[in-house]
Amino acid sequence: MAGQMMxxxxxxxxxxxxxxxxxxxxxxxxxxxDRGLDKEIKxxxxxxxxxxxxxxxxxxxxxxxxxxxxxxxxxxxxTYINELSRKSVSxxxxxxxxxxxxxxTKIELLFAFxxxxxxxxxxxxxxxxxxxxxxLIMERLFNEEVTRLKYFKTTHDNFAALAxxxxxxxxxxxxxxxxxxxxxxxxxxxxxxxxxxxxxxxQAPREFAVSRDAVPFDPxxxxxxxxxxxxGEVPQCLIQVKMSFREKIYLVVTELNQPxxxxxxxxxxxxxxxxxFEFSRQxxxxxxxKKFQNDIIHNILNGKIHSMGELQKNTSLLGVDINGxxxxxxxGMTNESMARGDFKxxxxxxxxxSDLIRSRISKAKIHNDLDKIVVIQEVEREQTQEEYxxxxxxxxxxxxxxxxxxxxxxxxxxxxxxxxxxxxNLPESFKEANEAFMFVDxxxxxxxxxxxxxxxxxxxxxxxxxxxxxxxxxxxxxxPEGLQKLYNYKKPQRDDLITTLRAYLDRNLNLSxxxxxxxxxxxxxxxxxxxxxKLTGIDFDNANEVLAVRIGLVVYKMIENYNKDFI
Length: 567
Hints:
Layout: H1 2-6, H2 16-20, E1 29-32, E2 43-46, E3 60-64, H3 74-83, E4 91-94, H4 103-117, E5 121-123, H5 130-164, H6 172-184, E6 188-191, E7 197-200, E8 215-216, E9 226-230, E10 236-241, E11 249-254, H7 262-301, H8 308-318, E12 325-335, H9 343-360, E13 364-369, E14 372-378, H10 385-406, E15 410-416, E16 420-421, H11 426-443, E17 453-456, H12 463-466, H13 472-475, H14 481-487, H15 493-506, H16 511-518, H17 522-536, H18 543-561
Parallel strand pairs: 2-3, 3-4, 4-5, 15-17
Antiparallel strand pairs: 1-5, 6-7, 6-11, 8-9, 9-10, 10-11, 12-14, 12-15, 12-16, 13-14
Helix pairs in contact: 3-4, 5-7, 6-7, 7-8, 9-10, 11-18, 15-16, 15-17, 16-17
């Protein structure tokens, strides 16, 4: 199939160098700009007016006897030809012999301009008609267009055959990319909107990012997609494709062997049509499987399986070992740049998180739970607590790194339950993971390097007791009276004081570090702490009082999580 398409493939369109190889052009001389002989020709026109730049699109061969410039001054001529730099002219064909004022000076200026901008200047004998030159170029361009149309039909038919062929192996995308790579003689890869690699050919990079130097470019043919090219160790061509079910995908061509040209664009466009069809098919199947699995996992996690027979059936459908060892990890995120109440953006971020987790955690089943992602991971039972802690942290760091490439303002947090034996005991680990997740903001450490916040249920200590209480009124009994006064203080001063208090405790009562963390002046931090002492009566020299305040802050966070308006 690829061989059929390769038979008509051509690297690019008609170039100036190829034009000069024609028998009809044997008497033409290259006077200047020989470094631009590989420019592609897209059209041809005669300069009939000095302001020709207004009437060209770029890529043209301009024919001139300088007659249009016969009466203009040298300075005016310089202005006219400099304006041509705004358009990517392919070549200038010059015919001498007409009476033109200051002809020699103007030709010298033309040569200098051509050398500077690598625009070939070709001279034809006076007896050669411009009409013959135009006819030759138009004929060659017509032949090029016919070749492109034939190539388009061949590639379209073959990629369409790939798209509609039954794919029992799940390698439809790989086959499409393989054929495309052979056609354009470069490695290719497809990435989703989160810049996760979905498929790639040999030598194609598996990691990808859109660089700041990426610039749009014209592929040389009509397209519904956005083409960009970015520099790097090896240049890359990026094609952004909007999908019906996703924001977009990227088809990335790494220009390892040759530049991406017009004929490559035709092949890529046909491949994209096949990819859209294949991804739509995969998406429909995947979404159905996700919903099915999501329902099963929801019932297992929430203890809604009422018989061993039902449990065996569900675990068989999930493809997991009923007697295996598992842990539950609950992931969530915060978006520092997101406005509150932006539900659509939150859903999008959670979808991103789900995709990234799915691609990075092995032996895992994923459950989307509103604004959280629940991961059920099969593990080795022999892990020590320290090994367990390190493995959870490593997973969270990997996910954080992937998320940061998508959006630097997204911060990951995770809570993990203990390892349990048997699927039937998953509700226990799920409950623990949720409780650990609830405490991660207030009891977990905040990494100074911007890494993820992680909390293990096993590390909760005294907070495990608070997990037994779900009634906000009972929880308030564990809040010191002074701290309650602070929470009842008027806004917005209250929020500043509470933030300062949290930072002060996190920094072990170090005012200098507190000020640094809050990006405020040292005197401001001092003033706020003195204000807190006056409002609450807290004695920060008393270790027991400080401990009670720490616990009280956690309790208030729990109440907030219960969505109760007791504050």
